[in-house]
Amino acid sequence: MKKVLFFAVFTVFAFTASFAQDEDGGGDPTSMGAWVIEINTGFGESSTSNTGFFLRSVDGNTSWGVGGEVGYFVLDDLALKGGLGYSDSGAEGVDGMFNWKFGGKYYVVGQFPVGIDVSGASGNDRSPLWLGFQAAYAWFLSDDVSIEPGLRYGLGLNEDAGDGDFNVFGVNIGFNFYLN
Predict the structure, then answer these.
(1) pLDDT per residue over 71-102, tens digit each?
(2) CATH of the domain at 124
C-alpha cells in the first residue's frame, strides 16, 4: 500500500512539473507565478521527516529515503511549498515511514532563501512533528537552476520520535529547478 501511495505522489509531482513547464512565462526565477522543484540531500537529519534523498549505513544497518518538494511563488521571492517522501530505516521488523512537509520560503534580495515549515512522518505507530527553520545561499547556475547549501533546525513539537534528542540540526544541499 505504501508503495502505491508513493507512486501516486510521484505521479502528481511529475504532472505538476510538466504542467508548469508548458506555461508561457518569463522574468526572474523567483517571480510571482513561477514554480520551483526542489530536491535536497540531508546530512545529519536522520530523525526528522525527510523529503529529500539520503543513504546511510551505520553498524551494518542501511537506511535510505527519497522525496522532493514543489513550490509556487505567490509573490515575488515568496513561495509556498509542499514536500513528500518515503524513508526506511532498514531495521528488522520496522516498516518505512511516509514523510511530509508544508511551509514557505522567502528569497531575501533574491539570493538568500529562508524558510519555515511544519513537517512530520507517519508509520511504525509513530507520528512525530517538527517546526523547521532553514537558511541557505542560492547559487544560480542559470536562470532555471540553483544549488542551495543550507542549514536547518527542526524543533520537535511532540515526543513521538522514540529515540533520543527530538530537536535536530542539519546541513543540506538543495538542487532547485525553476519553471516560469
Answers:
(1) 999 999 999 999 999 988 777 766 788 989 99
(2) 2.40.160.20
Q: What per-residue confidence (pLDDT) applies to 61?
A: 80
- Structural domain including 58 reads 2-179
pLDDT of residue 16: 47
Supply 153's cell numbers. 533546525
Distance, in Å, from the CA atom of 116 to the CA atom of 131, rounded to the nearest integer, reads: 7
- Mind listing the pLDDT tens digit for each residue in 107-153? 999 999 999 999 988 876 778 888 999 999 999 999 999 999 999 99
CA angle at residue 173 from 170 to 176, to 5 degrees? 135
The count of domains in the chain is: 1
Residue type, 82: G
Sequence-ordered list of residues with C-beta below 8 angstroms from that of 88, at least 6 positions apart, any chain: 63, 64, 65, 94, 95, 96, 97
% helix, strand, coil for the chain, step of 5: 10, 55, 35
User: Of 15, 97, 116, 113, whose CA–CA distance to 51 is shortest?
Assistant: 97
